[in-house]
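Form 7-S
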Amino acid sequence: MKTAAELFSLRTSVYQEYPTPPGLVHIRHERQSDGSIKTEVNAPAGVSYTIIKEEAT
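Output:
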């Protein structure tokens, strides 16, 4: 599964759901107090994912 989110302007958090044949993939991005972004992924068995963090330019 591949998805991209523009998170540089994220102030608090965003929650997304993506349908896949095995079930929904739930993704939450949350801005931390130190300015970093924490990403949590809950995916059904059989769905692989990789989190790639890009730096602001």
